[in-house]
Amino acid sequence: MTTTSGAEPARARARAIAKAGGIDKAIASGALTKLIDTTLSEALVLGLLKQGVSKYLAIFGHGSTDLGEVLRIYEAEGVTRTFNCRNEVAMAHAATALRWQYGETPAVITSIGPGAMQAYAGALAAASNGIGVYHIYGDETTFGEGYNMQQVPKEEQGLFGQMTAILGRSYTLHTPEAIRDALRRGAMTVYHPYRAMPFFMLLPLNTQPARLTLNLAALPERPNLPVMAPADDDDIDEATRHITEAKSIAIKAGGGTRGHDKAVRRLAEAAGAAVVLSPGSTGVLPDAHAQNMHVGGSKGSISGNFAASNAELLIVIGSRGVCQADCSGIGYKKAARVININGDLADATHYNRTLALTGDITAVVERLAMKLEAMGGAARSAKAAWLEACAAKKKEWSKYKTARFAAAPMADEVWRRPALGQPAAIKVVADFARKIGAAKFFDAGDVQANGFQIVEDDRTGDTFTESGASYMGFAASGLLASGLADKPRYTIAFCGDGSFMMNPQILIDGVEHGVKGMIVIFDNRRMAAITGLQMAQYGAGFKTNDGVAVDYVQLAGSVSGVHAVHAGYTMETLKAALDEAQKHKGLSVVHVPVYSGENELGGLGAWGQWNVGNWCADVQKAWTEQDL
């Protein structure tokens, strides 16, 4: 049984929108009437289009055939684009990356059941990093005629809607006319200025083709929200007093400071504060800036953790206090007071003894910096001894890193020959990325942990490290965004061997959608981050490696359009491999065997505390005894 009765009206509407340059312009010109008779599927496409969503990442199934037909028609007329993918988790990561790196808001489409469950799992990365993306899943029918294939097999109503509401916000379109309400709630979720998150739309199989009268003029647009800041100067004045009186100040720049580089630098310089970065905020202060102490936290750095643990005044900006960012709550051992700048009320009041300055980061920070600057440098000059002590620790950290970057290849048990240490190898690739102006995506695990200790960014947007959920497979999957973006940038994905194998179908999707970028696989044949943790806590590794050799050059090279290169075992051969790979006008893969073992030059170490394993008792005791 087939029906095509709605295809021509939909095609005519799509053609009118394309010719006019948008829905509102088509209505204004008379090419479209304000009221139309359509299906829920087309209404959703039109509604998302009005919010600027025209790109869809899709794996179609029986739960999304009607929506797929609408998208087929609209793509034929040049209004939308749909990119078919091969794994729902990877597809969710690519959508997150497209919004995160390029600012383009896409929608993810899956069928009902297992596909939706996979995409939902992948949405954890978007939720953890505050990235707004639409997710559209097929769902069980509303007539209740019996179990639908692939629904949750339980006598309960709306179970997928219940699950998706936990990770983000969710709406089940049981009634086609509810589309306006769903889109309004979706817009306020996906485009939230301070705490964006995924928005899940559940489309029952039988309501997708259901018809409704739709008012095109009433479809919600993308919200244009005003910048918010404290209404008066009372709290700003109080914060200024605290900064002036303190002898040692640390600014914790969280992931929310991305894009607020100038404001953070201005405040740091006016206040005489040392800046401690999070994994996601590298570049918010130029790497060589005297007040940039690099990352702090459970992994951290010598300089970053020194500044965090010795400052008497803590200024937190755009951070939600993740355990690894503040050593499970005990990273600021001497802080007697906190100034917290954040748009989210809960995050702004995360610590005790806090003066919360809620609102837009740049708006708040610049008002505070202006007050301090008006004092003629008095606040900064009082911190000279503090900044001198921090500078000494930064010099110590630089010397420590340099020894590892320059380390010769080390004898490795797996490779049965000397191989580069991971810090040395990552530094070579990071320097190459800087030289060619490439963006960097870091995957979870040891590559990520070493990576945010190594990168030397001078602005945000050059490095993306998914440390919110630390989702293995994110970097390679996120590389797909560079094949979908309007203005793509050459991007290098830094992956461990385990992370790459989580989502290797990027080799196919990347070629299919024209990715021009590089995957560098740092292969130590183990989960080195966890092996290192096991060794540090219990003195022995356990079940974090395997004995299966993989020829990644042959694996990647078997995919038509992928250029795969072996990097050899020295810095010189690695540099040559990178040059060769970058010349390929498409997707390339570089396989880098790296050392794993107990040689201290093979890693960058950890400099903080963490509430895991047999460290829990000490960390929890310290947390209980402190006042913050």
CATH class of the largest domain: Alpha Beta
Gyration radius over CA? 26 Å
The rounded distance between the terminal residues' Cα atoms is 66 Å
Count helical runs: 25
* CATH architecture heading of the largest domain: 3-Layer(aba) Sandwich
Strand order of the largest sheet: 3-2-4-5-7-6
Q: Give the tally of β-strands.
A: 22
Which word captures the global form? globular
Structural domain tally: 3
Main beta-sheet strand count, sense and barrel state: 6 strands, parallel
Instruction: Report the average pLDDT across residues.
Output: 95
Strand content: 15-25%
Instruction: Write the CATH fold name of the largest domain.
Output: Rossmann fold
CATH superfamily of the largest domain: Thiamin diphosphate (ThDP)-binding fold, Pyr/PP domains
User: What class, by secondary structure content?
Assistant: alpha/beta
Helix fraction bin: 40-55%
Low-confidence stretches: none
What this model shows, in words?
Strands 3-2-4-5-7-6 form a six-stranded parallel β-sheet, sandwiched between helices. The chain has a six-stranded parallel β-sheet with strand order 11-10-9-12-13-14, sandwiched between helices. Strands 18-17-19-20-22-21 form a six-stranded parallel β-sheet, with helices on both faces. It contains 25 helices and 22 strands. It is an alpha/beta fold and 628 residues long. The chain is globular and about 75 Å long. The longest helix is centred in the middle third of the chain and has 22 residues, at 384-405.
Question: Could you provide a short overview of the structure?
Answer:
With 628 residues, the protein is of the alpha/beta class. Helix 9 (234-245) packs across helix 13 (361-373).
